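Memo to structure team: turn this sequence into structure tokens by end of day. - J.P.
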Amino acid sequence: MNNIYLTMLIPAVVSVLGGLLAVFWNPSHHMRSLIQHFAAGVVLAALAVEVLPELGREHAPGWVLIGSFAFGGLVMYAMKLWSIRMELAAKTLSKSEQWNYGLILATFMDVSVDGFIIGAGFAAGANTGLVLALGLSVELLFLGLSLVSETVKGWRVAVITSLLAFVVLAGTFMGYFLLKGASVSSISAILAFGVAALLYLVTDELLIEAHEVEEKPSSTLWLFSGFLVFWSIQLFSA
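Reply from structure team:
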């Protein structure tokens, strides 16, 4: 049991490390694109090798999975529209006052959902929780880099990522304790919702941001490398 609690700390610790990394390292736009491709591959691997097979093993009713996935997609779409409105509102501020509130608030909401999904994974099984924790930790590690701007940098990024660490940890424990001992259908519904959320993370955040810069053909290899590295770890640790 103690090992599970320690494992739950991984995403929070990684988030803090990501903030410290952003303080001392400001990679080029091309390097950020490569990192985002790699992170997208890792998240896709987490879905393909653990979450979807886990849903198949649980044998939850099909309508529960379909409905939860559809609801997750609608929630992510609503969050997208809301974050766009926040970003447009932020652009009306002067440059000296401008913080990307839309991005920051959307990030906090994303991370809280991610934490709850990780907690649901641990409620489903230690291995599922570990895979989700490791997969999303890669995203959190470089999240601080994506928050860096002219007005949000240095210690501000470190503070924000530390708060994100608290949010993801709170979401993880909340998801675990609320769903621990819950029915198969309940846990499967949350995981199906999580599949939609993670697909949104890959297709509408990581890869779109990665494609904002001119790419080289080798960029695609980083996507497959992220998938392969995570899959290899899962295979050899099984």
